[in-house]
Amino acid sequence: MTRAIILIDGSNFYFKLKELKLHRLLEFNFSSFAKFLAPRAKIAQATYYVGAVRVTGSLKSKKLHANQRRLLAHLRSQGFTYYLGYLLKSNGVFKEKGVDVKIATDLLIGACQDKYDQAFLVSSDSDLAPAIKGAQEMGKIVAYVGFKYQPSYALLQTCRRSILLTPEELARFWGKH
Hints:
Elements (H helix, E strand, L loop, with lengths): L1 E8 H10 L10 H8 L3 E12 L6 H19 L3 E10 L2 E5 L1 H14 L5 E5 L6 H9 L3 E7 L5 H6 L2 E5 L1 H5 L6
Parallel strand pairs: 1-2, 1-5, 2-3, 5-6, 6-7
Antiparallel strand pairs: 3-4
């Protein structure tokens, strides 16, 4: 049986789903989604990567932090681990930091340590292309998991395999867990 890892760029995933009006992540069945991506593989690791929301004292930050804590508990209950990067405020806009580097690092270290045969990368970030190429040079299969309505052409060209999700396919992952 092949071994698979699932790597989800949480912010990227959330905002793509939000564009499709499918962003209620506390109702999303992540474990079924992982099995859908890798139906004939043993899932060795499933990780959700996102910037940590910090409480700044404002009511909005407290609400966002509480919602993120609920999401992280939801992920744990479905066998996912998570990695928290950080959010840096620049010119009044928050930018996620450390997440893409951690995804790339996990992809490459996992390949070097032979922890997986195939990786399913749920991200449209073309900055990950060098890490993908490195893992593939070590004999690993990296599948780009994106959205059919707005795929990353750079990742389609870089990865050996791709899964482009439609709203209809995604809709099946909301509901009972």
